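Handout, section 4.2: multi-component inputs.
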Amino acid sequence: MSIKQTLVVIGNGMVGQNFLDNLVSSPVKEKYEIVTFCEEPRTAYDRVHLSAFFSGKTAGDLSLVEPGFFEQHGITIHVGDKAAKIYRDSKTVVSEKGVLIHYDKLVLATGSYPFVPPVPGHDRAQCLVYRTIEDLEAMTAAAENGKVGVVVGGGLLGLEAAKALRDLGLQTHIVEFAPRLMAVQLDDAGGAMLRRKIEELGVIVHTGKNTSLITDGEQCMNKMCFADGEELETDIVLFSAGIRPRDDIARDCALDVGPRGGIVINNQCLTSDPDIYAIGECALWNGMIYGLVAPGYAMARTVVADLAGKEASFTGADMSTKLKLMGVDVASIGDAHARTQGALVYSYQNGDHEVYKRLVVSQDKKQLLGAVLVGDASGYTTLLQYCLNGIELPENPDALILPPRGDESVGLGPDALPLSAQICSCFDVTKGAVCKAIEAGCTSIGALKAETKASTGCGGCAPLLKAVMNSELAKHGFTVNTDICEHFAYTRQDLYNLIMVEEIRTFDALLEKHGKGKGCEICKPAVGSILASYWNDYILKTEHLGLQDTNDTFLANMQKDGTYSVVPRITGGEISPDMLIALGQVGKKYKLYTKITGGQRVDLFGARVDQLPHIWKELIAAGFESGHAYGKSLRTVKSCVGSAWCRYGVDDSVGLAIELENRYKGLRSPHKIKFAVSGCTRECAEAQGKDVGVIATETGWNLYVCGNGGMKPRHADLFATSLDKETLIKYIDRFLSFYVRTADRLQRTSVWMENMEGGLDYLKSVIIDDKLGLCEQLEQHMQHIIDTYHCEWKATIEDEAKLKRFRHFINSDQPDEMIVFVEERGQIRPADEEERKHFKLVEVA
Amino acid sequence: MVQWQDVCSVDELQPDSGVCALVEGLQVAIFYMPKDKAVFAINNYDPFGNANVLSRGIIGDINGQPVVASPLYKQHFNLQTGVCLENETVTIPAYAARIVNGSVQVSMPE
Ligand SMILES: Cc1cc2nc3c(=O)[nH]c(=O)nc-3n(C[C@H](O)[C@H](O)[C@H](O)COP(=O)(O)OP(=O)(O)OC[C@H]3O[C@@H](n4cnc5c(N)ncnc54)[C@H](O)[C@@H]3O)c2cc1C
Ligand code: SF4
Ligand code: SF4
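Output:
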């Protein structure tokens, strides 16, 4: 048996972790005992999406480490322990907490730190930076009591930080030393356009400003004094003035570092010591520090290959970027400043639409060298491919940035790309690798992602990946199968249209005309839902009954032991003490387990099927109606207490929530729909995590759409602002109607919108600008649903024949003896297997 | 000889859906497909969810086999043989069933 060598990795950030991920999937890992030091109190997380922390992502959501990763691969990680010193003579590392380890190979992945200019007063309270989760926590805390925030630095990160401050409700300024924003990526005209757009969003931009002192403020905590004599009062100062490599530990053991910092590496990412590598933002390659994650990942791959004895080298990386900064699309590719000799420049500026584009082209007009896009970055992928793959430009290169006139299309189809073209820059996946995976049987985006990792990093390449996949599949003669199931060769939307156009009212009629076989648990409920949302018939009509999931058939939610839970509607979460008592009495009488739901209502668990009608009779008598918690339908409209009570409230959120819930209750839809209404931008109702979210502002209601919580949370998008109630309701009517009509089965609004060609903008054009001329129909449909609303439980308890189904046995009044409860914290819960056995014994004895 | 037991009348069945009956102390799920004039009987116990719920599943066919999908975790069971389509090593008891003169009959194992 060979004795393993020890490999030590210092730093468990994005690149350090990526290195470990690569290492464990390489056979060379067998050679090493792996140990890593992680200074931060948590293992690696996604710094690139750090700002998502403010929209509700938790540290856990951002984690880059698969659960159990270190245990599974036998890696020792010292969390919260910083490597303090490297002794190259004895090849040992000592940590701050006193861990001493001998290494055979050492990898430095220490990243960088935010540069804070040494202005007097820079270390005052609430002078912060933006790099770690702890930094964001400090920002949130500081914003609680503050009104004004200033970001020092108008680069990429600075703009992102400004957005964060603005979203925290602060009056936000950006102070930039250079004469324009994003000085590295943009030229003057692009910077000016960006500035205009950002100022429109209420952020105040100061360029050409040199901060000379930070001191006590009068209205605010701090005051910034500038070299030109001006002053600015602010509570928070957020420095975002660039990064500096963390090379102390390397400097200290006399590894070569660059004159302005950075651990010097060669093409194998080796430092001046042949047993020590450096990767990521701490490394200096060819005089360059790369402040992006993709080059760091490329370095990580290089080191793994080098350890495995394979030929590999890091030869620089592309620094092109595309970002949405405060809702403004900005992209920069290659030599944006036209520094290449003889370069020609084309630019296009549209003051009306606030779009600026610039192309930098080689002297012979054949190659694209660089580009700048502001306001409309839709051409980014195409341009990047031209630039990276040296694809010959069309005769008039400016056609690439001019708005299309007529039908001509200037997009570069996926077929024009060579196999060597890089599709995903985060994981360096080429078109060739994608094609190979498709040939090996990956015929969906999900399968391709799993197989190649493409599009699992920043996700920017998703549209291109999809285009390549579709074109390859078409070439192989595949058609992408979108049939709902084996019984219908149609999508849900096709079925909806057939039902609508041919006025079909039953599943059998649809199956006879357009399907085959008997149906299944996929098509039956889907058709049941379409019939319900189109015709709004009573879902327990005999001809519809067999279509419904058990939850719909018994108008309650089946739980793990076969009992049901009951959720009466509590509109807007508002309930009187009397109603609450009535609810409590029913719960007590039937010995139900009661719990408050996330949607501000009360869930009563443990009802046997035969008890449901009795429970509902009492609830209806007390004035409750069905909450439709069992259906794919509108669930709840959550609300905060709003202007009636809250001292910050701007408008009556509860009143609106109740009105909306009453309007849309009972609407059947492809998936559940949740709403929320907040009375001001403090957003206590969490409306931005809902399918439809409404927030009151001084100038009217702001409407957000397509958010959701659950397994894959998504922040809602701002859809329209400053609406009066009438317009708000009109838009929601149209939005819901359009969703019900066109979404796939079990597709939440978020996925529906993301899969829509044109996404949010398209949706706006349909709902707001009536691009399809559909709005009148959509509103009428919604009106029909509202006019024909009925409480399903009321209809059921009034119908003797229907009540017959609510028995466990058709030929006996015995209940199901498998249903056994035990007590926990003063309420019932289903007995587990062991407890059930015990119970039976006791009963027999 | 097969012993048939009367369970209920056809009118008590749910068209294109299921009900549960108590037969000799066992819970039997009975499904009815009126268009084919077919009735099927299987045990009501879902071995994956560990609960008596199969009669409340949606029925239909998969590749020509009549099936019910468990309302809990959606596994399919063949209504004639009781075999689980997702995991063929799992089989639940299936019973012979028929309609005679408007009466539903099931034959239970000895
Ligand atoms: C808000 C924000 C947005 C960004 N957006 C983008 C983007 O859109 N696109 C993009 O490409 N890049 C973006 N970046 C940059 C990207 O996050 C970095 O390029 C990437 O994190 C670099 O990875 P790294 O591992 O080199 O450094 P880090 O992720 O910083 O990891 C280094 C780790 O090493 C630890 N460490 C340091 N010294 C020691 C020691 N002696 N002992 C133990 N541990 C130590 C540090 O605490 C840290 O956890 C963004 C960065 C920020 C902050
Ligand atoms: S969102 Fe605004 S109005 Fe509503 S409770 Fe919070 S602070 Fe008050
Ligand atoms: S989060 Fe999971 S366990 Fe909790 S209620 Fe939802 S499905 Fe059940």
